[in-house]
Amino acid sequence: MSDVDPRDTPSDSGDPTRANWLKFIIPSVLGAALFLMPVPGPETWTIPFGVAIDWLNANFAALLKWTLVAVTVTSGLLTLWYSYGPGTPKTPLMVQYFRTSAVWVLLRCLGAVFTVLYTTGMGPEWITSGATGGTVVGSLMVNLLALFALASFGLPLLSDYGFMEFVGALLSRAFRFLFRLPGRSAIDGLASWLGAAPLGVMLTVQQYDKGVYTTREAATVATTFSIVSIPFCYVIAKLVGLSDVFFAFYGCVFAIGFVCALILPRIPPLSWMPSSHKPGTSNHVDDTVHEGETLIQAGTRLGLERARTAPNFVEFIKNGFENLVFMWFSLVPATVAIAMIALIMVEYTPVFQWLSLPFVPILEWAGVAEAKAAAPSLVVGFADMYLPALIGKSIESQETRFLVAILSVSQLIYMSEVGAILLRSNLGLNIGHLAMIFVIRTIIATPLAIILAKYVVF
């Protein structure tokens, strides 16, 4: 028998520890640079992700326009075919993408109809006008196509290779002290911030089903830390003409979100939620940070563990393409439909004006310019996160547009995605709870945004 320790024998496959370190560090640094590194733009500082979106929109506008038509029409036809027609999905992904409920089938088909009617100019004026179709189809959704294309391959650099776990561990004790939440919740919160709010909600529901969270903890994480991601914030800022103050804007979003996170877990309805685990699960020990570990040691351990099982390059490309197909064919058509319906109601019916009437004198008392135009943004965000910004983009006052943009990304509860996921989950949240949380967040965010706009940003 040889006396040589096999661990000392060189391996043709290289040093697995070094490989894990490289797999952890390189994608994390690239992702952080893409989404977090300030770079000079034509007029002000921006991020590389924003530069890439602007470049795509500037050079491929016509291609993106007709891609949007192809995506929405294909989505509508395939969803009808596989949900109500004779088509049988061949793979689980086809089931996930194109077999859905009647409401979502209707929304995708409406999205296709709105897109075709606007793009061809064959629709009525209430579809083809600049305030409705021009805003949604001609501007927002074309931007979102580019955003989804880049985000599908860029965001996994932050979420799949250990960066999220590393930063989450560093924040774990702060989450426990400030928000009365286990350390693991910091990682789930970052999944929203660095990925997408629906992703963070789904992760939280999965953790609750495994017994990691109590009902109150899961409801708190899902409704308080489902922060709109950096790429979406950039699109909102650009939509309302605030890309030149993006870093100040995002800093204010973070500050307001922090204040809301301090308050909401301590008041109803979240404080009413039971502090018990899901029946049939056991209480999991929060082992984000092991005994005797520093936060950096814990973050490094978790980051390397994630990197060890992270996708290789081929899997990265495959996963990115699947993410892109899901976002393009599932989210884009429904978003077109919801945004168009809401803007048509805003422009051609008095519904939102009636709903927002009580807020007009409050905004005027607070010194908000164009208060009547801004007031609908306080209520319309419950339907979809883009709607306040879509309504407020034509407001002349920069401070008021700042308020509207803050509300777009700070209210968090919107029924087109996050709200629908929460209602389908088993966290015990109903439509009344979600409406209460939406209203409370709006009450907190509005005065803070007004103060920050007047005395800090502008």
Features:
69% helix, mainly alpha, membrane, 24 helices, Nucleoside transporter/FeoB GTPase Gate domain-containing protein, disordered N terminus, 458 residues, two-stranded antiparallel sheet
Protein architecture, described:
- There is one protein chain.
- The chain contains 24 helices and two strands.
- It is an all-alpha fold.
- It has one domain.
- A two-stranded antiparallel sheet has the order 1-2.
- Helix 7 (133-154) packs antiparallel against helix 16 (313-348).
- The radius of gyration is 23 Å and the shape is globular.
β-strand amount = under 5%
Oligomer: single chain
Task: Provide the succession of SSEs.
Answer: HEEHHHHHHHHHHHHHHHHHHHHHHH
Describe the largest sheet.
Answer: 2 strands, antiparallel
| Number of discrete domains | 1
Individual helix count:
24
Low-confidence stretches: 1-14
- What is the global morphology? globular
Average predicted local confidence, pLDDT: 85
- Structural class comes to mainly alpha
- Topology, number of strands: 2
Strand arrangement in the largest pleated sheet: 1-2
Question: Which range best describes the helical content: under 10%, 10-25%, 25-40%, 40-55%, 55-70% or over 70%?
Answer: 55-70%
N-to-C CA distance = 77 Å
Taking all Cα atoms into account, the compactness measure Rg is: 23 Å
